[in-house]
Specification:
The protein is an alpha/beta fold and 361 residues long. The strands form three sheets. The chain has a four-stranded parallel beta sheet with strand order 2-1-3-4, with helices on both faces. A four-stranded parallel beta sheet has the order 8-7-9-10, with helices on both faces. It has a two-stranded antiparallel sheet with strand order 5-6. Helix 5 runs antiparallel to helix 9. The N terminus is likely disordered.
Length: 361
């Protein structure tokens, strides 16, 4: 998208306009991101969810109430066109006067390449790419990195965001062009980035600060609460990541097949790589050759677990598992069975870990 979010303090004051005391009206695309925004706004306001639970975000028809939520929004938070290609036009048309945070283009977001083949090699996650400073993403450093963030004061966080976003936008623009160059919405282009970036707790922690900074610019009267909520949520995420790490230790090294390649951010965060995926993306059906390739790996390598998803064809999982001793479990990267709200995101991560442990044990 051509419109870029402006983070300068002067622009933030202007965005508030004559309604500085009003709580911003916020629209969010998917439930996991909505959960992060709801956590930052806790005690102040409630964001509106656009893509309803149980629906695929890749193809979605707006209901009148959802179109109205976009039209009324002061701020729109969405992943980006790689996940919801239909939403770009909706945002530009219905929310033309709103500020927009496109998380897949935001500074600090870690992006991974799609894994194109049906079979994955262990730890072959592709090179991480950042919109910002290079970081060490080794699994053992995860908790330490987040713990360091917790010591920031509200004033320091404000300064960080002003400095981070007052820089020349040229680099971000160039990266966005590279990330989307040649991208087709079936997800087959080798240059495309995996849009399921919300399954990285590190990305979630980055976005919490980003959301708090933007809301604080629009609503300075509540800035302290936004940043306090974000700081508390980051601390909770760090503790949750440690708990999940310990939980997955018992099955680390186990082999599983995903229904579609949606989990590599979670896999990377917790060092539990998948062996393959039945379908490349949620926007394409697997070819017979791809299904046969997965079937062969499940049999030849005694794959312990084949994962299904509630939105997609369970018959394919049955076909892949036929004649093997593999177990199955349902994983849902969107948390469709969890009530939308601030608790959805941490519960989503807990559910993913619990399902993997059950299936791999």
């Amino acid at each position: 998208m051509s419109r870029k979010l402006i983070f300068s303090s002067a622009a933030a004051v202007l965005m508030g306009g004559t309604a500085i005391a009003d709580v911003p009206t916020v629209a969010v695309d998917i439930a996991p991101v909505h959960s992060l925004v709801a956590r930052v706004m806790e005690g102040i306001g409630t964001p509106q969810l656009i893509v309803q639970p149980g629906a695929s975000p890749h193809e979605y028809s707006l209901r009148p109430s959802e179109a109205a939520a976009l039209q009324d929004a002061d701020l729109v938070v969405w992943m980006g066109e790689d996940l919801t290609p239909w939403m770009e036009e909706a945002v530009e048309t219905l929310a033309a006067d709103a500020s927009v945070i496109t998380l897949l283009e935001a500074d600090g977001t870690v992006l991974l390449d799609f894994r194109e083949g049906a079979l994955f090699e262990a730890h072959a996650h592709g090179e991480d790419e950042h919109h910002g400073d290079e970081k060490d993403h080794a699994h053992d450093d995860h908790a330490e990195d987040h713990a360091h963030d917790h010591g920031e004061t509200e004033e320091h966080a404000h300064e960080e965001h002003e400095e981070a976003h007052d820089h020349d936008d040229h680099g971000a623009d160039t990266h966005a062009e590279e990330a989307h160059a040649g991208h087709d919405h079936d997800g087959h282009d080798h240059g495309a980035r995996d849009p399921h970036a919300w399954l990285s707790p590190e990305n979630a922690a980055t976005w919490l600060n980003l959301i708090a900074a933007q809301l604080s610019g629009a609503d300075p009267d509540n800035a302290g609460t936004y940043f306090a909520n974000a700081a508390a949520a980051r601390e909770e995420l760090a503790g949750l990541a440690e708990d999940i790490d310990a939980q997955l230790a018992a099955v680390r090294g186990g082999n599983f097949i995903a229904f579609h390649d949606a989990y590599q951010y979670f896999e990377t965060a917790f060092d539990l790589p998948a062996s393959g995926a039945i379908s490349l993306s949620d926007a394409s059906d697997p070819s017979p050759a791809r299904v046969a390739e997965i079937q062969a790996r499940v049999k030849d390598e005694s794959i312990a677990c084949v994962l299904s998803e509630p939105q997609f064809n369970a018959g394919l999982v049955t076909t892949v598992m036929d004649g093997t001793a593999a177990k199955t479990a349902v994983l849902d990267p969107l948390g469709s069975d969890i009530a939308p709200g601030a608790e959805l995101y941490p519960q989503l991560l807990r559910n993913l870990a619990a399902a993997l442990v059950d299936c791999l044990s």
